[in-house]
Design goal:
By secondary structure, the protein is mainly α. Helix content is 82%, strand content 0%. The protein contains 9 helices and no strands. The chain has helices spanning 4-27, 31-51, 54-57, 60-68, 75-86, 91-101, 107-125, 129-157, 164-218.
């Protein structure tokens, strides 16, 4: 037998599911594509949160190793940085590996090769952003289509013998789809702005770190 608290929790969960089901039912058929759109938006946001973490882009330990090379670095420090780049576990590691591979070239040549690889890495950083762009565009449009459908239902219910039930259903469909469309789009707009800004900041930091690394290769090292 359930205790009173468990009974209240179970009743609350049941009421919540019933409310969600009734809301979807009021929204009509357009709630299905809206639900799919919301899932796509949530998945895209989770993917970007995970892919733009510091460990995947600019690990602090590797960045620190690169900064140390600008001073009086030893052969051991250079080899430690080179080995950490070989695992390719982050964007900085992959670009650093290219810089180490071409460290005996001139600064201009090494910079061009690193920049070429960096463009591809930046494209990877933007992966998933297009999904958010699509959701931001489609969700409000689906809401507007649902609104138009609801208005058609309302007008069909009008007449000499007005069907108040049909009118009420049309109003519910019109309002529900609009609300859901906007509710899906707004968080995606906020997330889109955040991710784009973070990519810009990470890209600028990558450029700075790699430029310093290439400059370090050009300077004579008395400890080498």
């Amino acid at each position: 037998m359930l205790d009173p608290i468990s009974s209240i929790i179970a009743a609350t969960e049941t009421n919540s599911f019933s409310t969600i089901f009734e809301t979807f039912k009021k929204g009509g058929v357009f709630m299905v594509p809206l639900a799919v759109t919301s899932v796509a938006g949530v998945m895209a946001m989770l993917y970007k949160f995970l892919s733009l973490t510091s460990n995947r882009v600019i690990p602090s330990s590797l960045a620190q190793r690169f900064y140390q090379l600008n001073g009086d670095s030893t052969v051991d420090q250079i080899e430690a940085a080179r080995k950490e780049c070989q695992n390719g576990a982050s964007v900085l590691a992959r670009l650093g590996a290219i810089a180490f591979k071409n460290q005996h070239r001139s600064g201009i040549q090494a910079t061009q090769l690193v920049e070429s690889a960096a463009r591809e890495e930046v494209m990877r950083l933007h992966s998933g952003i297009s999904v958010l762009d699509t959701v931001i565009t489609i969700a409000p449009l689906l809401g507007l289509i649902g609104t138009a459908s609801g208005l058609v239902t309302i007008f069909e219910g009008l007449g000499n013998n007005s069907d108040h039930l049909t009118i009420a259903q049309g109003i519910a469909e019109a309002l529900t789809t609009t609300i859901f469309g906007l509710a899906i789009a707004v968080p995606c707009v906020i997330a889109h702005g955040y991710f784009v800004r973070r990519i810009e900041m990470l890209t600028a930091r990558l450029e700075s770190i790699l430029a310093d690394l290439i400059s370090a290769f050009e300077r004579p090292n008395p400890n080498a």
